[in-house]
Amino acid sequence: GLDRARDVFGVGYDGLSDYYIDRVDMRKLALHGLNGLKTLDPAFAYTADDRQIRLTYGKADARAIALPTGEDPNRWARFTSDVVAESRLHFAPLKDASSEAIYKAVFEAELADLDAFSRYSSADTARQSRASREGFGGIGVTLKIDETGVAVSSVMPETPASRAGVRDGRSEEHTSE
Fold first, then answer.
1. Helix, strand, coil proportions of the chain in percent (round to 5)?
2. If 126 and its partner were Cys, which of 45, 64, 108, 121 is the partner (CB 3.0–4.6 Å)?
3. Are 106 and 9 in contact (CB under 8 A)?
4. What are the strands, taking DSSP E only, across the chain?
């Protein structure tokens, strides 16, 4: 719901403001992110001035939503989630889109504005990427996965795997103690 969206945007905005050396202009970032909603519904549009944003659909305007002042990522996260929630009331493709599709559209538009190298990964994609880099679970192994199968490529010392006698390499025999 709305609280989860605020949390997701809050973590994202906070991370972006911490990650970049140059100051991140939160107003610009948030408005560029909202432009990403056009990828889900080309009819999505808004107008913004120094004080507010107004969604436009058909010949009518949705309610105006005040723009936050300052650079507090949490305020901008609340603003973004409020605009998304209001947009979902008036634009059918946004109403029908998954929360993950909304997050992806907003964050990808923001990241495209910041640099050419960063990209948004869903929670599942990030988890899979982390697992392929660092190994699976908390047992203390790194796995190598290729067309021939799965092998333990390393075992970290003082982990459940090392205490259980797991060894590196596909062909080593395990000894029981």
1. 50, 15, 35
2. 121
3. yes
4. 45-48, 52-57, 60-66, 141-146, 149-155
Sequence-distant (≥ 6) Cβ neighbours of residue 42 within 8 angstroms: none
| φ, ψ dihedrals at 158, nearest 5° | 60, 40
Of 119 and 146, the structure prediction assigns the larger pLDDT to 146
Model confidence pLDDT, tens digit, residues 74-117 = 999 999 999 999 999 989 999 999 999 999 999 889 888 666 55
Distance of CA 136 to the CA centre of its chain: 21
Q: Whose CA is closest to 109, among 29, 21, 6, 5?
A: 29
The CA-to-CA distance between both ends of the chain, in Å, stands at 52
- The residue with tokens 């901008």 is 76
Q: In the beta sheet, which residues pair with residue 143?
A: 152
Q: What are phi and psi of 66, to 5 degrees?
A: -65, 140
**What predicted TM-score, i.e. pTM, was given to this entire model?**
0.65
CA–CA dist 100, 123 (Å, integer): 9
- CA 56/CA 34 separation, integer angstroms: 13
